[in-house]
Design goal:
The structure holds two protein chains of two kinds. By secondary structure, chain A is mainly alpha-helical. Chain A is built from 14 helices and two strands. Chain A has two domains: about 60 residues; about 240 residues, MetI-like fold (Orthogonal Bundle). The longest helix of chain A has about 50 residues. The N and C termini of chain B lie far apart (about 50 Å). The longest helix of chain B has about 45 residues. Chain B has two domains: about 45 residues; about 230 residues, MetI-like fold (Orthogonal Bundle). Chain B has eleven helices and no strands. At the A-B interface, helix 1, helix 2, helix 5, helix 6 and helix 7 of A face helix 1, helix 3, helix 4, helix 5 and helix 6 of B.
């Protein structure tokens, strides 16, 4: 194909010898095109594979580096709660507990609000407000997590300890979850900041999924006289269910791995307390605080094992979210 | 009947009210955080902030010039490592792999890596670069950020390349251009705006990262022009200063917070405008 084209370009007025030269040039060019194709395809393939290799390496290196601790503590690492660098005894339970509980608090707060925002943006907001409000919510996601942490520590924690926590202790203190002193830092403040951080993720994915609900379904709801809320609850939400669950799990995955904001607000105490107002710790907070201080091999290895556990938990959670969301988008019809 | 209808209407208004309230909640926090970052931050920023290195602990004055340079260096290096690799991998997904098994696995793994805990990436790079080579370095920090960037760029590049219609590719192929040339001079050109936007967002995102830098580039109170030495960054400095005991440090941390936030927001908003320009 390219040969013909070039010959034509060469034109009839050119002497035979030169034309021949041109043909061989074009042949060379074609073979260089083939070579170029092979190289380009090979290189891009290699980089695509590098993503998979990277994931595999992550696992292998983390397991290798935590081997010392895995050998020393075995499974008891996961369910014991002594974290004593001096005695070289390490149990991950307080960190794992803190990671899970702070993330659950975040989900409990963030899910209703995110769904409310998604409903507002898809079903209620006037067209002129949709764009700016959607953008504003998504800007929340672009603020770096260290800013959340710092703001949380200097502004939000004092606010909580002055106005919110005394109120919780006075009126809900009979529930063991809300006892203790109003410190402003602890499990609940960390979970609350996490909630604000994951709201943009859950709400923007849910919004996209709500938009895929066929309008003919909603219209038939309105046609039989349903109110807006009834259409949302009985048509939109059931249709979008698996996608919304995926969005929530995606938010959970984000919350589990979040580091800086939690480190600032959770209080960094290696203990398990029932009260959500007490200082606690999480896997990522323990890593951020102690990793550079760990000189002993076993200490470092235990910290890496914490990282490995976090990686495995988030891997499972995110894989689940991905499966749920992608199944939904296939049903919604792809190109 | 009337009562039943009233109840349904009431439930409707309550639900809609709650949903408006949710949107207000989100916006209130956005503006609350931005207001504090801007007011506290502006109070801390002066010429010294951009030209001086940090003063010794407890002493007034000083600046963050070294941290600003550090953040720039590490981000630029990370972009240089992560973006070409990501674009090529994205090219494979959209031009060659498409529906193949490899492409499916790469997409799946990328999507998980996008949301993987960044602190774990820090631990990983510590294990492969800091520990064996005997020290924290700007290079290790850049590698950590590049790893965080890679999956973001892969997925954005693929999405943007896929927007170029197949008919355009076929037209170029029919003219006799080899496949790679079609990709480079037709497909890339068509997707340029989207890819640049995606890269800007990825750069903005990693420039605000802290966790992966804590154990890789670490920190430094002085100028450092050596890529194999510990290097200060704005974000790690914020972490150390905000956690520290001095009021002065907190001031400086707010200044750095303003700088990072303003930069990230600016890039995000500009790239949104670019995207909207294309849609319109």
């Amino acid at each position: 194909m390219s040969e013909n084209l070039n010959e034509k370009n060469g034109g009839p007025g050119i002497p035979a010898s030169e034309a021949n030269g041109y043909v061989s040039l074009s042949a060379r060019r074609q073979s260089s095109g083939k070579l170029g194709d092979a190289v380009f395809k090979g290189v891009s393939y290699a980089f695509a594979l590098s993503v998979i290799v990277l994931m595999a390496l992550l696992f292998i290196v983390l397991v290798k580096e935590s081997w010392l601790s895995i050998k020393a503590f075995g499974f008891s690492f996961i369910y014991t709660s002594v974290w004593d660098p001096v005695a070289q005894e390490f149990g991950a339970l307080p960190s794992i507990y803190g990671t899970l509980v702070s993330s659950i608090i975040a989900i409990v707060i963030a899910v209703p609000i995110s769904l409310g925002i998604a409903i507002f943006l898809t079903e209620m907001a006037p067209k002129r407000l949709k764009g700016p409000i959607g953008t504003a919510i998504e800007l929340l996601a672009s603020i770096p997590s260290i800013i959340y942490g710092m703001w949380g520590l200097f502004v939000f924690a004092p606010f909580l300890s002055e106005y919110v926590e005394p109120f919780l202790i006075d009126y809900l203190g009979f529930i063991p979850l809300f006892t203790g002193a109003p410190l402003g830092i602890g499990m609940l403040p960390a979970g609350f900041i996490l909630a604000i951080m994951i709201i943009p993720f859950i709400s923007s994915v849910s919004r996209d999924i709500f938009q895929m609900v066929p309008s003919i379904l909603k219209e038939s709801g309105y046609g039989v006289g349903a109110t807006k809320w009834e259409v949302i609850r009985k048509i939109v939400l059931p249709y979008a269910r698996s996608g919304v669950i995926g969005a929530v799990i995606l938010g959970l995955g984000r919350a589990l791995g979040e580091t800086m904001a939690v480190t600032f607000l959770i209080g960094n105490a290696q203990e398990i307390k029932l009260s959500l107002l007490e200082p606690a710790t999480s896997i990522s907070a323990t890593l951020a605080n102690e990793f550079t201080e760990a000189v002993e091999d076993l200490y470092l290895s235990s910290l890496v094992e914490l990282g490995l556990i976090l990686f495995i938990i988030t891997f499972i959670v995110l894989a689940l979210a991905k499966l749920l969301i992608s199944r939904f988008s296939y049903k919604g019809g792809q190109l | 009947m009337g009562l039943h209808y009233q109840r349904r209407k009431l439930a409707n208004y309550i639900a809609l009210g709650v949903s408006v309230g949710s949107a207000v909640f989100g916006i209130v926090f956005l503006f609350w955080i931005l207001k504090d970052v801007f007011t506290f931050g502006f109070a801390a920023i002066n010429l010294d902030f951009f030209t001086q290195v940090p003063a010794p602990p407890g002493e007034a004055g000083g600046g963050m010039a070294n941290a600003i340079l550090g953040t720039l260096t590490i981000t630029v290096l990370a972009t240089a490592f992560g973006v070409p690799a990501g674009i090529l991998a994205g090219t494979y997904l959209s031009e060659y792999g498409r529906k193949s098994k490899t492409a499916f696995v790469v997409r799946f793994v990328s999507d998980i890596l996008v949301s993987a805990p960044s602190i774990v990436i820090g631990v990983f790079v510590y294990a492969i670069m800091v520990k064996p080579f005997g020290g924290f370095s700007a290079l290790a920090g850049a590698v950590a950020l590049a790893i965080i960037m890679l999956p973001v760029v892969v997925r954005t590049a693929e999405e943007m390349l896929k927007l170029v219609p197949d008919a355009t590719r076929e037209a170029a192929l029919a003219l006799g251009a080899p496949h790679w040339k079609v990709t480079v001079s037709v497909v890339y050109r068509g997707a340029l705006r989207g890819i640049v936007t995606g890269i800007m967002l990825a750069v903005a995102r990693v420039s605000g990262e802290t966790a992966p830098l804590l154990f890789t580039s670490f920190n430094n109170s002085f100028w450092n022009f050596n890529l194999t030495e510990p290097t200060a960054t704005l974000t790690v400095t914020i972490f150390n200063y905000a956690m520290g005991p001095y009021e002065d440090w907190h001031q400086m941390a707010w200044g750095a917070a303003l700088l990072i936030t303003a930069m990230v927001l600016l890039v995000t908003i500009i790239s949104r405008i670019i995207v909207r320009g294309r849609a319109g």
